[in-house]
Amino acid sequence: MVLRFVFTISIITIVSVLFLSRASAQTWPPDSIPAIFTPNGDGINDLFVIPGSTAQNGSWPALVVFSRWGTEVYTSRPYENDWGGKSPGGDDLPDGTYYYVLEGGTTADLQANGYIMISR
């Protein structure tokens, strides 16, 4: 006799609850946001650049970045592809994973969210 057990484990964190409450049914832009950037001053991948996030119809996306504890560490409205992994006070944020919400684009109700890793 063979017994089979199926276990389902759900982990819900403060950050995932935050994103679930802010998420939209639509995402923009699909699959084009980098997962890592390296703000180490070498001129290569020093900024979090989102392809296609240029001014369209006078509207830029807004970017909000959170630490893994859900603390907002960066906000920019409009976002101009200029975040170099620094806090609002200008200090380098520690290497690690951060979570973002990108709002805007050509339609105000479009959102994308995900994670970004900083590695210096």
- Class from helix and strand fractions: mainly beta
Q: What is the third-level CATH name, the topology?
A: Immunoglobulin-like
**CATH architectural label:** Sandwich
State the helix count.
1
Supply the number of structural domains.
1
What is the rounded Rg? Answer: 17 Å
Share of residues in helices: under 10%
Biggest sheet: strands, sense, closure? 5 strands, mixed
Global morphology:
globular
CATH class: Mainly Beta
How far apart are the termini? Answer: 54 Å
Instruction: Tell me, rounded to a whole number, the average pLDDT.
Output: 75
The count of β-strands is 5
Strand order of the largest sheet: 1-5-4-2-3
Run of helices and strands: HEEEEE
In terms of DSSP E residues, the strand content is: 15-25%
Low-confidence stretches: 15-28
Overview of this protein structure:
It is a single chain. This protein has one helix at 14-22; strands at residues 36-37, 62-66, 72-76, 96-103, 111-118. The protein is mainly β. The protein has a single domain, classed as Sandwich (Immunoglobulin-like), CATH 2.60.40. A five-stranded mixed sheet has the order 1-5-4-2-3, with helices on one face. The longest helix is centred in the first third of the chain and has 9 residues, at 14-22.
Q: What labels would you give this structure?
A:
mainly beta, Immunoglobulin-like, 5 strands, 8% helix
How would you concisely characterize the structure shown here?
By secondary structure, the protein is mainly β. The protein is built from 1 helix and 5 strands; from the N terminus they run αβββββ. Strands 1-5-4-2-3 form a 5-stranded mixed beta sheet, with helices on one face.
